[in-house]
Q: What sequence folds into this?
């Protein structure tokens, strides 16, 4: 009744389709460059962890990961913090220009990064934040904050007003009510919103590379260093790629229970 | 309409090997008359929804058989059983109009259009839905939607039984009464077998000819509302039905007398052969225990509170450790904290291990 | 739930407004500024009015030609991937297991492509499609299909499309899955009782309940595909020639490559405007669909 005939086959085929390129990447990351360019086989005949070791020990490599993580975390924290009160306002109150403000916010999510590349470059250079994680974190706010507000507004709307009113009657100040009562109730919403902010910031590249050069270089820029006089360092590139997938995979694993539940309850 | 027989029917959500005590529905054998209006009454978790779902085929029983008009349909699917079910919240097809909703079951049976239209109009008239046939079903109020759900069940002329699972839960209180009367009228006019699940005794007692009370997975008593009120077969029935419920107190019973808290009251029948070691209790409805001035030959009670319900007053009293509800006669003014209790012997029942005992005359 | 009117709500919204405005309005101002000026270098600008816009919208000019060519490419691309990803996403959502550990496993695998940085996505497919070291390229060439995304236009397009389907179908699938999970069991039971066929269950119950999620999925996918930059750039660089040069790639070429600020700025504004208009249309449709429900219910 719920599903369709042949669902096991369809689903399996699709999941295999999703996993194939990733498997190929992992496969390559465990091979030496010699093996990669000389033979084509489905698993490494001469497996090696050298590529991974190189990344973990070479500072110029792992600093790329750390830089990326820095701006992603900063951005997630900022986005969620400013989005929470705004989500509450959009959910509970009508005020002058509220519908327009909401659409204006959403429209920023629709802005192509390419449009902002040059202006941001000028702006952040001018205020001296160029090549710091702050520049990227703030730049990413342009699409993460609207998304966070959108998601959180749905969750706040799912909490009955009576709870607010009871709390105020009981003498709670607004900040205390917000932190002690409201936030626990929308916990899964905060989880989902934080997950999406993390995800979209982690994967965004044009702005991350435009706004950094040496100090705050994200991993995506570091990966271009795999080209040298000796040719393309495929094994290293593959290993770097695999390692960029891992944080996301971990996050998804931790929030797996929230996702289906969280999606269904909120705005969606 | 069908006569429904349950033969040793039982169900456990944990599988057949689970201990019988944990079964959601303990073994039951009973018959539901063709054309009867039944209420399945009991508190949450007593198994009434399980029983309903077993009859409709949504759940396949762990054990036992179900017969429709003598035919074993235990393994038949819901569709094959040809029953109608109305759920707790209205289930309608949002994208269709009222008319299309009602026509849906008939379309699935590939009936000719003329026949479908005729039947839809007939049922719509019955349920006062005719002016709304071309409206989008989604836009109507909750009670209208429940009528549509009901209509979809009735539109099949050979429907075996109509099952209701607490259908008035989301209806506004003012409209509940209207819908209930409508259901009763439908039952009279169409002579349907109707089974109505509820935890509200008023709904059950006003709707049904026969009320089936369930408790902890067991059918505890089945009878007319009057039967249930006058002669509860189980202490649970006595306690659940009536407002306030029956007083159940532990007592020592011998012959024609019962001793409660050191005081003796007379009984109408003789109880000589009570099972040894059983928990003996005496049950009497508050309507049949009256508050009087304290007297030496009356059981003395300490008055805790008096509820004035308008046309009648009930006193909540205490005898030793036991709590009692008793009626305060009209115009009687209560002197102080203590009062005597007067029992009507013909209304006092004896229970052993919660089951009613028939005494000898 | 009724909202109360309260202008003080602006204080709650202020942080969001400031953060986004800082990121959006200031740059926007510079873009508008640049779009109306021309320069001979040395940071000397002179007024050009709407000159750049005229050139942009004139198909016979070099700028206009490039703009319209890339615009058609974007429209074609978005149309094709929507036509593939939406039905595929629905089918995948309908195929999900109902309960047990396999649900979590499927969700994790579905989510993986979404979490990969976009340049790594491009890199993965760049490698995957190579005839010498990529499984796909190697296999295709070995079974007789001459596949080369670097030199062959059709192959380049096919690769970019398959890559996007690989990357983003999961988003549609996850959204639809969530929508499906929110349907109460009683609807399926009622359909059983009404004797509905499997197809009728899909059209009468599942599809209507998924309408809201689908609208969001379509909206998100249109927006993101219309703005696409990194993945195709990494794989094809816009080539062969400029056959896969989308608007954003064109824009970056002009802005950061040629440093042709005026043209780039004008293109940026028109680009953004197209997206905003389309999204505004979607948004009004979405919110109107919502208010339809809140219209006073008709009593029976």
A:
């Amino acid at each position: 009744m719920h599903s369709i005939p042949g669902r096991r086959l369809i689903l399996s085929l699709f999941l295999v389709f999703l996993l194939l390129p990733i498997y190929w990447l992992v496969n390559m990351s465990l091979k030496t460059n010699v093996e990669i360019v000389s033979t084509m086989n489905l698993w490494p005949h001469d497996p090696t962890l050298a590529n991974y070791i190189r990344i973990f020990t070479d500072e110029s490599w792992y600093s790329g990961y750390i830089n990326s993580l820095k701006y992603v975390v900063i951005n997630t924290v900022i986005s969620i913090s400013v989005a929470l009160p705004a989500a509450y306002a959009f959910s509970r109150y009508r005020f002058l220009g509220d519908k327009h403000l909401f659409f204006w916010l959403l429209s920023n999510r629709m802005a192509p990064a390419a449009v902002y590349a040059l202006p941001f470059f000028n702006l952040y250079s001018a205020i001296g934040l160029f090549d710091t994680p702050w520049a990227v974190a703030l730049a990413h706010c342009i699409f993460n904050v609207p998304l966070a507000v959108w998601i959180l507004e749905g969750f706040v709307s799912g909490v009955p007003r009576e709870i607010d009113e009871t709390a105020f009657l009981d003498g709670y100040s607004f900040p205390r009510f917000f932190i002690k009562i409201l936030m626990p109730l929308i916990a899964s919403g905060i989880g989902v919103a934080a997950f999406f902010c993390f995800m979209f910031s982690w994967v965004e590249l044009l702005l991350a590379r435009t706004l950094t050069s040496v100090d705050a270089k994200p991993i995506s820029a570091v990966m271009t260093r795999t080209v040298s006089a000796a040719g393309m360092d495929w094994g290293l590139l593959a290993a770097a790629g695999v390692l960029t997938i891992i944080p996301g995979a971990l996050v998804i694993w931790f929030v797996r229970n929230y996702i289906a539940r969280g999606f269904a309850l909120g705005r969606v | 309409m069908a006569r429904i027989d349950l033969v040793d029917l039982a169900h456990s959500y944990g599988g057949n090997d689970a201990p019988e005590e944990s079964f959601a529905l303990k073994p039951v054998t009973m018959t539901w008359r063709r054309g009867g209006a039944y209420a399945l009454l009991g508190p949450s978790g007593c198994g009434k929804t399980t029983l309903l779902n077993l009859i409709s085929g949504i759940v396949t029983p762990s054990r036992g058989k179900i017969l429709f008009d003598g035919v074993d349909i235990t393994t038949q699917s819901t569709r094959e059983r040809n029953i109608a079910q109305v759920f707790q919240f209205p289930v309608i097809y949002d994208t269709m109009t009222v008319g299309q909703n009602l026509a849906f079951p008939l379309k699935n049976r590939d009936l000719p259009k003329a026949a479908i239209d005729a039947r839809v109009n007939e049922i719509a008239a019955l349920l006062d839905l005719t002016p709304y046939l071309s409206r989008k079903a989604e836009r109507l109020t909750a009670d209208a939607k429940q009528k549509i759900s009901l209509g979809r069940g009735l539109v099949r002329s050979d429907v075996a039984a109509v099952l209701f699972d607490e259908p008035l839960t989301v209806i506004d209180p003012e409209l509940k009464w209207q819908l209930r009367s409508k259901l009763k009228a439908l039952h009279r006019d169409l002579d349907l077998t109707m089974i109505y699940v509820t935890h509200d005794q008023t709904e059950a007692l006003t709707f049904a000819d026969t009320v089936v009370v369930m408790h902890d997975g067991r059918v505890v008593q089945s009878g007319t509302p009057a039967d249930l009120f006058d002669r509860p077969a189980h202490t649970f029935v006595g306690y659940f039905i009536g407002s306030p419920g029956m007083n159940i107190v532990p007592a020592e019973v011998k012959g024609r007398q019962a001793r409660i808290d050191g005081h003796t009251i007379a009984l109408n029948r003789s109880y000589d052969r009570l099972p040894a070691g059983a928990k003996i209790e005496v049950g009497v409805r508050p309507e049949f225990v009256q508050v009087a001035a304290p007297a030496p030959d009356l059981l003395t009670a300490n008055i805790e509170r008096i509820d004035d319900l308008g046309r009648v007053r009930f006193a909540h009293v205490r005898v030793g450790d036991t709590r009692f509800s008793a009626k305060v006669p009209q115009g009687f003014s209560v002197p102080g904290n203590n009062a005597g209790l007067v029992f009507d012997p013909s209304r006092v029942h004896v229970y052993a291990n919660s089951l009613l005992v028939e005494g000898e005359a | 739930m009724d909202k109360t009117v309260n202008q003080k709500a602006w204080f709650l919204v202020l942080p969001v407004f400031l953060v986004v405005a800082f990121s959006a309005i200031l740059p926007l101002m510079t873009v508008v500024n640049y779009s109306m000026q021309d320069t001979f270098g040395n940071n000397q600008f002179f007024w050009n009015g709407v000159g750049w816009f005229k050139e942009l919208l004139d198909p016979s000019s070099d700028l206009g030609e490039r703009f319209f060519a890339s615009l058609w490419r974007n429209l074609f691309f978005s149309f094709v991937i929507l036509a593939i990803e939406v039905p595929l996403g629905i089918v995948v959502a309908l195929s999900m297991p109902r309960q047990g550990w396999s649900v979590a496993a499927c969700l994790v695998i579905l989510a993986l492509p979404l979490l990969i940085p976009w340049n790594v996505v491009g890199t993965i497919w760049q490698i995957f499609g190579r005839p010498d070291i990529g499984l796909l390229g190697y296999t295709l060439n070995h079974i007789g299909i001459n596949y080369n995304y670097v030199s062959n236009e059709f192959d380049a397009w096919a690769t970019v499309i398959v890559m996007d389907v690989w990357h983003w179908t999961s988003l549609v699938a996850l959204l639809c899955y969530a929508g499906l999970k929110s349907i109460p069991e009683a609807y399926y039971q009622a359909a059983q009782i009404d004797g509905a066929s499997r197809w009728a269950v899909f059209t009468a119950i599942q599809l209507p309940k998924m309408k809201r999620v689908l609208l969001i999925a379509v909206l998100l996918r249109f927006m993101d595909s219309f703005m696409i930059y990194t993945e195709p750039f990494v794989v094809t660089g816009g080539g062969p020639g400029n056959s896969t040069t989308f608007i954003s790639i064109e824009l970056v070429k002009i802005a950061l490559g040629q440093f042709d600020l005026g043209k780039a700025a004008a293109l940026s504004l028109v680009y953004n405007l197209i997206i905003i208009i389309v999204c505004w249309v979607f948004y009004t449709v979405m919110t109107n669909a919502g208010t339809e429900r809140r219209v006073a219910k008709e009593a029976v």
In short: Chain B has a mean pLDDT of 85. The radius of gyration of chain B is 25 Å. Chains B and A do not touch (no CB pair under 8 Å). The longest strand of chain B covers residues 299-308.
